[in-house]
Sequence to fold (290 residues):
Amino acid sequence: MSKMSKKILILGSAGQIGSHLIEYLKKKNFITYDFDIVNNKKQDLRIHNNIILNNLIKKSDFIFFLAFDVGGSRYLKLYQDSAQFISNNLLIMENTFSLIRKHNKKFIFASSQMSNMGHSNYGLLKRIGENYTKILKGITVKFWNVYGLEKDISKSHVVTDFILNGLKSETVKMLTNGKEEREFLYAEDCCRGLEIIMNNFSIFKEKTTEIDLTSNKLSSILAVAKIITKLFVVKGKRVKFVPAKTKDTVQLNKKNKANKFLFKYWRPKFSLNQGIQEVFEYYWNRSRKI
Fold:
C-alpha cells in the first residue's frame, strides 16, 4: 500500500505529540484523519458508541492512539489523584480499545516510561492501556519526555513552561530543585520514530510488543534551565530560574532504563540544545508579534 493511499487516524491530534505528528505525516503524503475533543465536542473519546469514531476507525489502515487526559508535571501534580482524571482515562481507553478490537485494526498505543510507577495514577492507567494493547496485538510505544510546540498551555511541559514564563518575567520559580534527570526527545525526532514503527509494524511486532522512544541521554531540569537562560541572553534579556527546595514529587526521581530496540532502526537527529532552540525561537518570535 502506497503512502498516498494509506489512511491514518490520529487520536489526540491536538496534543503535544499528535499536533506534530499529523503535520509530519501530511508532508509525507499520507492521508490523515485528526480526532480530538479540542476540535469538536463530538470528538470526545469518552462518548460510548461514538459513531464518528467508529466510522473513522473502520476506514483507517492504521491508528495512533495518542489521546489521554495528561499534561506536564504541574498538571499531573494537580489532577492525577482526582476521580475525574481516573474516570476520563478509563472511559477513553475502554471506548477506543473496544472499537479497535471490533474492526481489528493495527495500532500504536502511546504509553509512558512512568507505567511501572505504582505510586502514580497516571502510570497505573498507562499500564492498563499497555495490557489492553498486548491483548489486541498492537504495539506500545513508551515516550520519554517529548518536548516541542504546545497548543494547550494549561497542560504544558517543562521546556515550554520555562520559555513562556521567561518571556513574562525576569525571575522564574521552578517547581522542584531541578536536580531530577530526564531523557528529553524533540517532537520531530519522535515523529520520525513513530513513522518507522508504523512502517515496520508487522516485523517489529514479531520481536517485541513494547518500544521505548527516547534520546537515551539524561539531562537535568537545571541543565534545561541553563540552556534557556543562554538563549534569552542572546536576545538581550536576562532571566533567572530559581530552584525550589522540594524534590520531584511526580516521579519521585525514580529512574527506569529504556530498551534500545528502536536504536537499530532510528536515532534522534536533534541534540537537546538544538531542539530547545527550535522551540524557543518559535515562542520568542510569536511574542514579538503580539
About this structure: The chain is about 45% helix and 15% strand.
